[in-house]
């Protein structure tokens, strides 16, 4: 009789599975503190109910997922394994309508410029 732990059958559904990089689920991120900060910048005297905050958080997570998936698809089409700011920018232009896309691209470009200039 073999010693040690018994070997698990690889086809057994209760067997521990190795994590694969593809299809990795990310934890649903919370942007609530960031949404609150932006609200206070735009309307300092306005509040938001927890239900409204939850809806806004879901909205931001949904847009984040859509942009990330589109950028990933664009990188795969161009046979790249890394998503750069260029893929993100193109994904934003494809997903967001007209003026909203223009504002998002300009704010994103400004943020990337600020980040690169701060890295010495």
From TrEMBL:
Signal peptide: none annotated. PANTHER family: HISTONE H2B (PTHR23428). This is Histone H2B. Residues 1-32 are annotated as: Disordered. PROSITE patterns: HISTONE_H2B. Core component of nucleosome. Nucleosomes wrap and compact DNA into chromatin, limiting DNA accessibility to the cellular machineries which require DNA as a template. Histones thereby play a central role in transcription regulation, DNA repair, DNA replication and chromosomal stability. DNA accessibility is regulated via a complex set of post-translational modifications of histones, also called histone code, and nucleosome remodeling. The nucleosome is a histone octamer containing two molecules each of H2A, H2B, H3 and H4 assembled in one H3-H4 heterotetramer and two H2A-H2B heterodimers. The octamer wraps approximately 147 bp of DNA. Its main location: nucleus. Pfam families: Histone (PF00125).
């Amino acid at each position: 009789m073999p010693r040690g732990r018994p070997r698990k059958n690889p086809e057994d559904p209760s067997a521990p599975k190795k994590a694969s990089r593809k299809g990795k689920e990310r934890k649903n991120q919370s942007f609530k503190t960031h949404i609150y900060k932006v609200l206070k910048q735009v309307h300092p005297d306005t509040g938001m109910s927890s239900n409204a905050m939850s809806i806004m958080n879901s909205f931001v997570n949904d847009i984040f997922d859509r942009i990330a998936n589109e950028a990933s698809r664009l990188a795969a089409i161009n046979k790249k394994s890394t998503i750069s700011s260029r893929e993100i920018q193109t994904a934003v232009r494809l997903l967001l309508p007209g003026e909203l896309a223009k504002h998002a691209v300009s704010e994103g470009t400004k943020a990337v410029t600020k980040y690169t200039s701060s890295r010495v």
